[in-house]
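Example 4.3 (complexes with small molecules)
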Amino acid sequence: MDFQLSEEQKMLKQSVHDFADQRLAPMIAEWEDNGASLDHTLLSRYADMGLLGITLPEEYGGTGLTAFDAVLAIEELARVSPIAAMPVFETSVGPVRVVELFGTEEQKQRFIPPACTGEKLMAVAMTEPEAGSALTDLSTRAILKGDHYIVNGQKRFISGGGQSEYYMVYVRLGETKGARGIGGIVIEKDSPGFAFGKQETFMGLHGMPSCDLIFEDCLVPKENLIVPEGGFAFLMQAFDVERCGNATMSLGIAWGALEAAKKYAQERKAFGKLICEFQGVQFLLADMAMKVEAARLLIYRAAVNAGLGIPSIYESSVAKCFANEIGKEVTDMALQVFGGYGYSKEYPVERMLRDSRGWPVAGGTVQIQRVNIAGAMLGRRFNQR
Ligand SMILES: Cc1cc2nc3c(=O)[nH]c(=O)nc-3n(C[C@H](O)[C@H](O)[C@H](O)COP(=O)(O)OP(=O)(O)OC[C@H]3O[C@@H](n4cnc5c(N)ncnc54)[C@H](O)[C@@H]3O)c2cc1C
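Answer. The structure with flavin-adenine dinucleotide bound is encoded below.
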C-alpha cells in the first residue's frame, strides 16, 4: 500500500488547484447570485487542461488517466465550488462513461469526442416523479417503430438539464416489469417531442442547472440505444464509478470548509487572543480534520482499486455514504468556527453548508447506500419494498 502520489499526480493537483483559485473562485458570486452556469469559453479552458474526460481513452479525445486521477481533480475543484467540478464529474465519472463502457465503436466516435472538447456535455436522467430510490419502478417508455424509438415520460431533478446537449436516459424498452425491462438511450437536446420543465430552485448548488425532462412522442434514432433491455446491471455498474465522484464532491466541499475555518481561526481574536488558541476551537478543527482525512482515504481506496475499471459497490457505497455524512458535519462545524460571520453570506461557509446538503440525496441517498453496504457485507440482497 502506497500513500504517496506520483509526480504526475502532484502536478495535476497543483495545476487544478491554481486554476480553481485564480480563475474559478472569482466566479462563485456570479454562479451563486445569478444562477449563471459555466460558459463555453470556460469549458474550452477545462478541455485544454485535459480535465474533460480524464478517464476516457485518448483515441476519443480523453486524457486516458484513472478514476483516481479524476477524483484528485474533482476534489481540488469542489474545494472551491462543486459547480466548478461539475464538468469534470460529468465527463470523467458520469454518463459518458456508460458510452465508453457499453457503446458500439460508432457510438463512441459520435458521443465521446464532443464531450471531451466541452462542446456537448452529457447529463444522466434516471429519476422520475414516481421513481427516485425505487428507480426500477421507472415508467418512461421507449418503443421501437421503424428506425426510431418513440419516447414518452418525464424525468425529474436532472443536473445539467436544459444546458447539456446529450441525455443518457434510463427507459423501459418493453413490457417487462422491474429492472429487467430497463435500458439506456442517448436523447439529443433538440429532438422532436423533447421539452424542459422550469429550472429548480435548490437551497444550494446555485449555478448548477436542474430541471424536468419531458418526452411526448419524442423521436430518437434507433442508433442512440446504448444499453438494450436487460442491461440495467451494466448501467448500475457504471454508476459505481459515479458514486466515487459524488463522494468526492462532499469531500472537496468539506476540505474547503476546513481550510477556511483554519485560516479564520488564526485571524479572528476574542478575549484578546486568536481563537485558534482556545481548546474548544482546536477540538472543532481537529474533529473536522479527522473526518476529512477518513473520507479521503475511503474514496481514494475505492478509486485506486478501480484502476481503469469500475470500483466495487461495497467500497464506493462506504465512501459515498461516509463522505456525504461528514460533508454536512464538517461544513456545520466550520460555520461554528466563524461565529456570526459564518451565518452571513459575506463568508463562504454558509454556501458550503448548503452545497454539502445536496450530495447525500443525489446519486442514491445515504439510506440506499447503507442498504448497498449491508447487502454486499452479508452477501445477500434484501427486499426493501
Ligand atoms: C442535487 C441533486 C442532484 C440530482 N441530480 C440528478 C441527476 O442528475 N439525475 C437523476 O436522475 N437524478 C438526480 N437527482 C435525483 C436523486 O437521484 C433522487 O432525488 C434520489 O435518488 C432520491 O429519490 P427521491 O427524491 O424520489 O426520494 P424518495 O425515493 O422518495 O425517498 C424519500 C426518502 O425515503 C428514503 N427511502 C426510500 N426508499 C427507501 C428504502 N427502501 N430504504 C430506506 N430508505 C428509503 C430515502 O432515503 C429518502 O430519505 C438529484 C437530486 C439532487 C438533490
